[in-house]
Amino acid sequence: MAAILEFGPFRLDTDAGILFHGAEPAPLGQRAVLLLAMLVQRGGAPVSKDALIEAAWPARAVEESNLTVQIAALRRTLAAISGEARWIETLPRRGYRYVGPAATTLPADRATAAREQPSLALPDRPSIAVLPFANLSGDTEQDYFADGMVDDIITGLSRINWLFVIARNSTFTYKGAAVDVKQIGRELGVRYVLEGSVRKTRATVRITGQLIDASTGMHVWAERYDRRSEDIFALQDDIALSVVGAIAPSLRRAEINRVKRKRPDSLDAYDLVLRAQPDVDSGMPDQVRQALLLLERSIALEPDYALAHGNAAMCHHCLFLRAGLQEVNRAASIHHARSAIAHGQDDALALTLAGFSIGMDGHDRSAAFTALDAALAISPSSALTYILGSVMLGWGGDSDRAIEWSERGIRLSPFDSWAFAAFDAQALGHFHRGRFEEACRAAYRSVQANPRHSITYVQLAAALAKLGRLQEARAAAARVLELHPTFRYGRQFQGVNCTPALAASLGEALRAAGLPE
Asked: Which residue among 116, 356, 456, 513 is the one 20 to 30 A from 28 at the CA level?
């Protein structure tokens, strides 16, 4: 199981394959990291040369001198950073032993790592985070319904221009955890926190909610709602309006109308989208295919359901880029994106997903940003709009805006599952501006946020190559091919419509790193 090992001044993320000193990555290649992980995990016990070679070069016949070179590199790096010489002891004819400070093993949780950052300052307007509601239905199969209720409440709140709303991708990292509201306020940088519970039966829904001032821990508002199951959309709006009214009692009619929005006519179609959402968000081809089965059923029930089309567009985008660049997926992505835009002029998420697909797969960035700008006009707190927009800006060579949009997205959702994409955009922006150290740092953060996405290692390999750190660049390139064996950077650049100057510079670096064109 992946883990984070803390020892002395170091933190070794075995999942991402990166050694950190504080927040800074150490210059170690993948094989050195694998060797260090085995030595540290054995906790001072002798480790044979054969076991170390198998860990770093699995199922390969290599000379023992390769191990000697990697151990020497490890010793140099650890000593240079820490100022201490004794970390790894040689045991003649037997192997090696770690002799540094005892290690502590922590869960390899991206949110845990992110929360080591300093507290965030409050924005200059009222701010709120909506935590996952507890499912009191006695049926874990209803978790998706409770999550969907919260998601829609966040969507309604996000439509209020003067309210700063944290995205659900960050608040849901607290799901199932015992929470300290004051700590959440510091970690997310918000004044208010909404928490609650859901109990659903076949005919009724009961929701309790309470709004808390995170700066003091005091309750601002609390309410219980009992409604029929078919009234859930009105219930979601009522909760959002009650929260906004508690924060700003002089709520205007125009703002009430902004919270209330068009919903699907079919509850079954809505339910199918809720069930599909986790697999859509995974970005993994096998799960995305499962999501498409549900989304197609939803669209069959309600052909004009914009969010179902937007999610289907993202599924086909994932399959296009990660499952062979098949034209059928590109065409389907564009088709569903156009349907989402046609029917989703009041749905910020549908417009965001559609705009991304139109821009990335349809190569029409003008239409893409028309959709994204419309999404932000509806929902100024849409973190995903800024994050996906930053990716398009990065590949399009608009470096400064790419960095600006990615930073806005991360502030609205500090622990977002899409954070890797925002850091990718920063890496592209800095790389295009020739700031290769900054590009490398952003690429490391992207890898740490999502170590299973091949593009994160592409940016890292390119930045390392430009810095002349070819051994590490080749290690990152090897990881790209391990995750995506058919990767060719020329096809990738064509697929995402990379601007020519950036493609030339990236291509030169990736060629040096050993990736095929």
From this structure: 116
Cα separation, 70 vs 31, in Å, equals 7
Domain-located, residue 376: no
- In the chain, DSSP finds a helix count (H) and a strand count (E) of 23, 14
The verdict on 226 and 252 lying in the same domain is yes
Residue (of 390, 483, 394) closest to 16 by Cα position? 483
Our CA angle for 151, 282, 404, nearest 5°, is: 70
Distance CA 296, CA 299 (A): 5
CA 61 – CA 234 distance, rounded (Å): 66
Q: How far apart are CA 329 and CA 298, in angstroms?
A: 19
Residues 47 and 136 in one domain: no
Domain match, 222 and 288 both = no
Rounded-to-integer distance, Cα 352 and Cα 314, Å: 10
| Residue range(s) defining the domain that contains residue 338 | 264-316+324-355+365-371
412-436 exposure pattern, b = at least 16 Cβ within 10 A, e = fewer: bbbbbbbbbbbbbbbbbbbbbeebb
| Both structure tokens of 508 | 């030169």
Residue 141 and residue 236 in one domain: yes
In terms of domains, do 466 and 451 share one?
A: yes
Which CATH number belongs to the domain containing residue 438 in this structure?
1.25.40.10
* Cβ 164 vs Cβ 127: under 8 Å: yes
- Rounded Cα gap, residues 184 and 296, in angstroms: 38
Q: Do 134 and 164 have their domain in common?
A: yes
**Nearest by Cα to 21 from 34, 36, 4, 8:** 8
The string of pLDDT tens digits covering residues 377-409 is: 999 999 999 999 999 999 999 999 999 999 999
Task: Please check the confidence at residue 112 and state whether its pLDDT lies above 70.
Answer: no
- d(Cα 408, Cα 462) in Å, to the nearest integer? 25
Question: Tokens at residue 321, please?
Answer: 């880029």
**Rounded (10°) angle between helices 232-247 and 143-158:** 50
State mean pLDDT over 87-110. Answer: 80
Q: Is 66 exposed, middle or buried (0-12, 13-18, 19+ CB in 10 A)?
A: middle
Helix axis angle, 419-432 to 500-513, nearest 10°: 100
